[in-house]
Design brief:
Strand content: 15-25%
CATH architecture: 3-Layer(aba) Sandwich
Oligomer: single chain
Number of domains: 1
CATH class: Alpha Beta
Shape: globular
Strand order of the largest sheet: 5-6-2-7-1-8-9-12
CATH topology: Rossmann fold
Number of helices: 8
Structural class: alpha/beta
Bound molecules: adenosine-5'-triphosphate
Length: about 260
């Protein structure tokens, strides 16, 4: 399906010798603010609940949000001569993010593209994850420098595209799709976030952006539709409180099952 179309240079790098990482999945969005970090965090939480060893590499260097969702903004990764030791969360998920290295998590990273790219590369080559069943990459939004670096550096098993209902009518999802296709990376499917709300009184499902077109668009592109997440104030609260590991809804159960099935074939 994803035949290589362009002559893109290959800069594959090996990860730390101590690592044994079975599956590497990047979570991508065409633009910011659609809930890509949230989806990454939820996938990790759900896979961890299924007893898999899970890690998250936060490749969003200028806007890292993973540590905060797990309550770890003040945790620090340990740097040694052999590599960088990730932070381990309450439930055992391993995290690597620029905010786990900076002295102050609110310090801005004012670096140019190549330095940002090299930092992400170093997270891949130097972090000591040891045994992981799944490593999720939370990519920065868009289809710029860093996604390109990750696509070239890491031998990814697949990407997941996160979108919101409004994006699907634009070309933004198509850009993420085209980038993965050009880099010959399998697309595992699309997840639609902020798809609907549930009335807290009558429990009616309200499609505030109109009837979702996600399934149809996925079908037109020939990729899987992995499911949809509602806007849920409880999710926002869990993120704000750094308690995303307490998430217990079944919104993405099907998505997790599909990913598990496809990647364990
Ligand atoms: N389905 C949802 N229900 C409630 N809140 C949500 C939902 N999705 C995302 N949010 C909230 O929106 C905020 C932004 O989400 P997130 O950081 O995942 O977006 P993003 O796409 O990774 O953004 P960027 O890539 O621009 O940093 C988070 O604080 C999260 O709590």
């Amino acid at each position: 399906m994803n035949e290589k179309k362009h002559n893109i240079e290959d800069f594959r790098c090996e990860t730390n010798k101590m690592n044994n990482i079975k599956r590497k999945v990047a979570v991508l969005s065409g633009k910011g603010g659609v809930g890509k970090s949230l989806v990454t965090a939820l996938l990790a939480v759900m896979m961890n609940k299924k007893d898999y060893n899970v890690g998250i590499l936060d490749a969003d260097i200028t806007g890292p949000s993973i540590p905060k969702m797990f309550g770890g903004d003040n945790y620090k990764a340990k740097i040694s001569e052999t590599g960088i030791y990730p932070v381990v969360t309450h439930s055992g998920i391993k995290l690597m993010s620029i905010n786990l290295i900076l002295d102050q998590p609110d310090s801005p990273v004012i670096w140019r593209g190549p330095l940002i790219g090299n930092t992400v590369k170093q997270f891949w080559t130097d972090t000591i994850w040891k045994d992981l069943d799944y490593l999720f990459f939370d990519m920065p939004p868009g289809t710029g420098d860093v996604p390109l670096t990750v696509f070239q550096t890491v031998d990814l098993d697949g990407i997941i595209i996160v979108t919101s209902p409004q994006d699907l009518v634009s070309l933004i999802v198509k850009k993420a799709y085209n980038m993965a296709m050009e880099m010959n990376i399998p697309i595992l499917g699309i997840i639609e976030n902020m798809s609907y709300i549930i009335c807290p009184h009558c429990k009616e499902k309200i499609n505030i952006f109109g009837e979702s077109k996600a399934e149809k668009i996925a079908e037109d592109m020939g990729i899987r539709f992995l499911g949809r997440l509602p806007i849920d104030p409880m999710i926002a609260q869990l993120c704000d409180n750094g308690e995303i590991e307490k998430f217990s809804q079944n919104y993405i159960d099907d998505c997790v099952d599909i990913i598990e099935k496809v990647l364990n074939k």
